[in-house]
Amino acid sequence: MNRVVRQLSSSLAFLRPRSEPQLSGCSLGGGLGGWMGARGIRVAVRNGNLEQALGLMERKMRESGMERLIKQRVGYHLKNSEKRVLARKNLQHRLRSQDFSRKLRAIIVKKIRGL
């Protein structure tokens, strides 16, 4: 967990504001200087439990794919298993996209022929 936080803070240091950062206990990682726009990750720190908030932030980063984006930006080595998972996801996305375009094309052709 600490490794991810260190990697995140070092790779996104250029986005950090010049003034003193405010950690009021309401969010972490929400305002990344427009890097993620409206898709920022916000984590509430409850009862001063920072470890729990960092764990939640790490899980949200993993689920959203931000961790993978950071690793790509840093030039992190991908294991073969990670490459297989990414290749499978890309293949599924491509097949869904092709299937959708095929269906859309069929609908448009039917409408044109019906006129």
UniProtKB/TrEMBL annotation:
GO BP term, example: translation
GO molecular function: structural constituent of ribosome
InterPro entries on file: Ribosomal_bS21
Keywords: Ribonucleoprotein, Ribosomal protein
Cellular component, GO, one term: ribonucleoprotein complex
Family affiliation: Belongs to the bacterial ribosomal protein bS21 family.
Protein name: Ribosomal protein S21
The organism of origin for this protein: Ensete ventricosum (Abyssinian banana)
